[in-house]
UniProtKB/TrEMBL annotation:
Pfam families: ABC_tran. It comes from the Bacteria. Part of the ABC transporter FtsEX involved in cellular division. Important for assembly or stability of the septal ring. NCBIfam families: FtsE. This is Cell division ATP-binding protein FtsE. One of its GO terms (biological process) is cell division.
């Protein structure tokens, strides 16, 4: 699909954790609306830090992050929360509620946004069907396989109908077949217009894709 104007811009972003851990150094790139950008690099290269900065969970030590015309540095807490509603985050360790059902986990993702009732239920049912989780609807998450948990995590992120999905090692705990399935789902969502930033150290996932890849820690962009 045609790629639009930049959705996200990072300019010379550096993140130093106390006392002096340089997690990211002088990283600049932009992501266009509708793009799927891979972020790769070895363990400790700063992939999670980068996604956390974009989601506003951390602040850069220096440099600038822009979402459309919004400069993160000028956002009040309330504005940052509003911005975060436009994004879905898929965490490496799922961060689901293990004792709650699949339905409840995904529904809660909407409830925290103030969307409830029949509208929310219908949206949840639709996304569960879409991710082949309808049969697991009332099962507690702790009883699911790793691939199923990952699909629930994706469902919870995309039920918000976000503009941007941030996926942190979404295939980290999965076998190659399940990993390809997760990648296929993210590619489908991207083909429908959702911008996706996918952090992975799995070279198999990167192979055969005509995408831009941000390579950390250097921050260079490779057109694969
Ligand atoms: N909250 C934190 N406080 C202090 N140091 C941190 C914190 N988060 C990350 N780091 C450090 O920053 C560096 C980058 O970590 P980060 O988790 O971003 O890398 P990563 O590429 O995602 O690694 P992995 O692939 O192993 O998840 C590491 O040296 C890490 O120890």
């Amino acid at each position: 699909m045609a790629l639009g104007k930049p959705l996200l811009q990072l300019e010379k972003v550096t993140k130093i954790y106390p006392p002096s851990i340089r997690a990211l150094e002088n990283i600049s790139f932009e992501v266009r609306r509708g793009e799927l950008l891979f972020v790769t690099g070895p363990s400790g290269a700063g992939k999670s830090t980068l996604l956390n900065l974009i989601f506003g969970l951390e602040r850069p030590s220096s440099g600038r992050i822009l979402y459309g015309d919004l400069d993160y540095a000028h956002l009040r807490r309330r504005d940052l929360i509003a911005l975060r509603r436009r994004m879905g985050f898929i965490f490496q360790d799922f961060r689901l509620l293990p004792e709650k059902t699949v339905f409840e986990n995904v529904y809660l993702g909407l409830e925290v946004l103030g969307i409830g009732g029949a509208v929310a239920r219908e949206r949840v049912e639709r996304i569960l069907r879409r991710l082949d989780l309808a049969a697991r609807r009332d099962q507690r998450v702790e009883t699911l396989s790793g691939g199923e948990k990952q699909r629930v995590a994706i469902a919870r992120a995309v039920v918000k109908e976000p503009e941007l999905v941030l996926a942190d090692e979404p295939t980290g705990n999965l076998d190659p077949e399940r990993s390809r399935e997760i990648l296929r789902i993210l590619e489908e969502l991207n083909a429908e217009g959702i911008t996706v930033i996918l952090a992975t150290h799995d070279e198999n996932l990167l192979r055969g894709h005509h995408r831009r890849i941000l390579v950390l820690p250097e921050g260079r962009i490779v057109n694969a």
